[in-house]
Structure formats: C-alpha cells, structure tokens
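Q: Make up one entry.
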Amino acid sequence: MVGLGQVKAKEDASKMIESTEENKRLTAEKVVDVQNAKAELEAKLDKIGNLVHDSVPISDDEANNAVVRTWGERRTEEGLKNHVELVELLGIANLSKGTNVAGGRGYYLVGAGALLNQALISFGLAFLSKRNYTPLQTPFFMRKDIMAKCAQLSQFDEELYKTLIDSFNFHQVTGEGDDKYLIATSEQPLCAYHMGDRFHPSELPIRYAGYSTCFRKEAGSHGRDTLGIFRVHQFEKVEQFCMTSPNGDESWEMHEEMIKNSEDFYKELNIPYQVVSIVSGALNDAAAKKYDLEGWFPASKTYRELVSCSNCTDFQSRNLEIRYGQTKAWIIHSPPPPPKKKKKTLFYTILAFFF
C-alpha cells in the first residue's frame, strides 16, 4: 500500500515540477525582453553623435566654414577650359559609351586617362609609404552587420549599393546569409580591419595607406554635377587611416599630421588649395572635427572639395570593440595603462580621383 506520506510527496514534487517549468518559461521570456531592450537601447545610442571639439565653428551653414590657410596662385583669367571641356579635348574618357553600358554617370577612361589614373594611385601610395604608412588594399564589399558598425544608417539608402543574392542557397554553400554592401570608401573596410583587436601601447600609432575602388549611389545629389567625371558612381581612392592611443593630445597631433600630408601632396601636384574647418552642423555622427582641403577650379573660379580629414576619437572603436590595453602576457613587460580605455581612430582621404 502507498502511504499518505508518499502521496503527499508526489503531489509536492508535481507542484515543484510545474513551478520549475513555469520559471523556465518566464526566464526565457525575460531573456527575450532583455535582448529586445538592449537592441532598442543600442539603436538609440547609435543615433547619438560624437562630442564636437571646442575649436569647431558652431553653425548649420557651411558658408561659415572657417578658412584655416590657403596655398598657391589662383588663376582667374577668362576663357580657361573647365574639366568637362578638357576631358573631351584630350580624349581621355568616353562618357557616352560609359552611360550606354553602366547608366548615368558611367564612363570609360581611355588612353592617357587610364594611365593618369594609375599614375596618381601609384604616386599617392608611394608618397604615403615614404611617410611610414603601410599600403593596404581592401575588399570591395562588406557584410551588412559589419557595414552597420562603420557607416551611418542614412548612408545605406543614399550612398551604398547592395548586392542581391539568394540568401538561402548562398547560406547553404558559404554559411553566410547576409546580403553584402559595396563600399563607399576604403575607410569602411579599413576601420573593420582591426575589429575585436586589442593593442599594446608599443604598437601605436598605426598608419595605413588604403587603396580601393569605391561605389556610391549619389542619391542625394540627383541633377547636380552630372557633366564630366565628377560625382560619379565608381572611382578609386587612396586614403590615410591612422590609429592612436587615447592618451593626451595624440589623436589631435595625428589629425594635424594627416592634413599636412595632404597639403604636401597637392603642393607636389601644384594645385592651389584652401583648408577649411567644417561647421558643427555639417559634421557626420562619427567626426569630432573635420578639415576639408578644397582645390581651386580656375574655369569656374571656385574651390571644390578634394580631401576630407576627420578625427573620430573613439566613436568607431567603440562600435567595433577595438581596445587599447594589455593582456595578462603583456602585464609582465610593462605597467598596465588606464583600464577600459578604447583607442582613438582617425580616417582620412588623401586622394579622391576625379578629373
């Protein structure tokens, strides 16, 4: 016979099992709630821009960009040919055939145009190599989740081309399910190159001369600069990308070094320019400060942007979890730096090749 005590024990056990199952269900729900709340928090944090440096001009109007310095003699005589006329006169590109094949803003570089393009790329890489930059040729496309850590969401619609694939079949073959995005600048894959890495103080600063073909939809510039090889969908770039420690003014000193490199580069090409500090309202979320180097276009008697140089402090390194610190093995060799500091990153374009 089963005693009353045994029956009581079975009833208590059943209640405990039911309670345990209910707790598991509630825990699973709370885990999902926490994950959703974390994703919502991160989405909101992603909309918060970097802290603007005190020296940045405060304005929403780029007419108030501060001119830092100018160099070179500006030609202003009448009758000078513009870049559109020069392309046709010299026969260095075929835009009509490019448009027929690739659509609007398409082009073929022909003869001396193709050679000039390669010469400028080679000159840019050699120029930076002599200044202790390591050349790095990047992938032309990136995974969506990685691109999201390097680019603002607004760029996805206005700038980035998306590759369309059969996600299921592609995943079966490669293990990857995400669509890819073509890069708009080599800064994006350069930034992700050290994703998840940790740097010892002795390894910094790091200087890269990135080279890539870049692709931009230019959706926000419809109807503007449609003539010649200007504001095109495909182009080559050589970029400076530097990483410094977060200590003192190291990143700001590097920022000045990088804009000086660009000025020296355009002096070599004998292109008159001005350097301007961009107003706060025109900075993207990542930049704490940005210089533009604007070249003089004599036919139109105006300056146009050739170079953009930004100090992003630790904005990008936070997203990509790039850390400045020491592993246990390093502690033997030197005292640890301040805990949990993230390294600062700067990205920089020295050569955006447009005629």
Remarks:
- Confidence is low (pLDDT under 50) at residues 328-339, 348-355.
